[in-house]
């Protein structure tokens, strides 16, 4: 029982006990009024407790039969039923008390002085305990059903999730591996093609460079040859002039 339920039960108990006080004065044991009251009290006690037990049994049986459809509201139904029974029993007891107070004389007042306590002890508490026992039994059955249900449902969810995520992981890994393989294949093919193009272009550049070198070398050779030819021509002219001068000298000195 939670502290809230204890507080409600305690409040009802105080209300019942404090209605007419805790006076324990008793009427004459053998008086007709006492005999009539004892019979009325016994009938009232038996009727209230029987009705209470029947109503509680029917309510909890119906409640237990619908727990599979009312799982979410199971706890609320038990608390609502308990509060309804407490309200009904308290109302019945207070109504009986008021009726007796309005119709009986001084001996009735002596009986009423102790009635509240007797009703609380013999009717309310027994009915309350019957409600608690049946409610607790029903809660135990439903709690076990909920425990089994949630355990099985949770395990099924874990198994399904594990299967789905494992499948998703395997598919993702496979797709990633395929994508990597395809990327490698495409990159390799493209690189091979680029390699061929680069090799071809470089070979052409070598050819172009050789052609440029040959052209440049030809120009250089022509310039060098022309330079040497000019030197040779100049030297030849110089030697020619020297030779002519020597010849002229010999001629000039022929008579000497």
Helices, strands, pairings?
Blueprint: H1 3-17, H2 32-65, H3 74-103, H4 106-252
Structure keywords:
256 residues; mainly alpha; 4 helices; 88% helix; rod-shaped
The share of residues in extended strands comes to under 5%
Ends apart, CA distance between termini: 167 Å
Q: Which structural class fits the helix and strand makeup?
A: mainly alpha
The main sheet comes to: none
The ordered string of helix (H) and strand (E) elements is HHHH
- The residue-averaged pLDDT reads 76
What is the rounded Rg?
Answer: 62 Å
Helices, by number, come to: 4
* Low-pLDDT ranges: 1-25
What is the helix content?
A: over 70%
Q: How many β strands by DSSP?
A: 0
What best-fitting shape do the alpha-carbon axes yield?
Answer: rod-shaped
Name the assembly state. Answer: single chain
Keywords: Signal
Signal peptide: 1-27
What does the model show?
Residues 1-27 form the signal peptide. Keywords: Signal. With 256 residues, the chain is mostly helical. 88% of the residues lie in helices and 0% in strands. It has four helices and no strands. It has helices at 3-17, 32-65, 74-103, 106-252.
Write a concise synopsis of the structure shown.
Helix content is 88%, strand content 0%. It is mainly α and 256 residues long.
């Amino acid at each position: 029982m939670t502290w809230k339920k204890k507080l409600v039960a305690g409040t009802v108990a105080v209300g019942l006990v404090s209605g007419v006080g805790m006076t324990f004065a008793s009427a004459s044991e053998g008086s007709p009024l006492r005999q009539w009251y004892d019979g009325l009290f016994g009938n009232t006690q038996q009727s209230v407790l029987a009705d209470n037990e029947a109503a509680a049994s029917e309510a909890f049986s119906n409640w237990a039969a619908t727990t599979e459809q009312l799982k979410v509201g199971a706890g609320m139904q038990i608390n609502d039923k308990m509060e309804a029974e407490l309200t009904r029993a308290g109302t019945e007891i207070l109504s009986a008390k008021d009726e007796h107070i309005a119709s009986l004389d001084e001996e009735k007042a002596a009986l009423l002085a102790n009635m509240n306590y007797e009703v609380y002890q013999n009717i309310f508490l027994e009915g309350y305990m019957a409600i608690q026992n049946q409610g607790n039994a029903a809660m135990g059955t439903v709690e076990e059903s909920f425990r089994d249900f949630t355990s099985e449902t949770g395990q099924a969810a874990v198994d399904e999730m594990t299967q789905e995520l494992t499948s998703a992981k395997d598919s993702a890994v496979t797709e990633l591996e395929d994508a990597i393989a395809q990327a490698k294949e495409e990159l390799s093919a493209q690189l091979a093609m680029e390699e061929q193009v680069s090799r071809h272009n470089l070979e052409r550049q070598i050819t172009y460079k050789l052609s440029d070198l040959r052209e440049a070398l030809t120009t250089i050779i022509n310039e060098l040859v022309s330079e040497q030819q000019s030197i040779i021509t100049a030297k030849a002219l110089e030697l020619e002039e020297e030779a002519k001068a020597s010849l002229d000298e010999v001629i000039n000195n022929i008579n000497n």
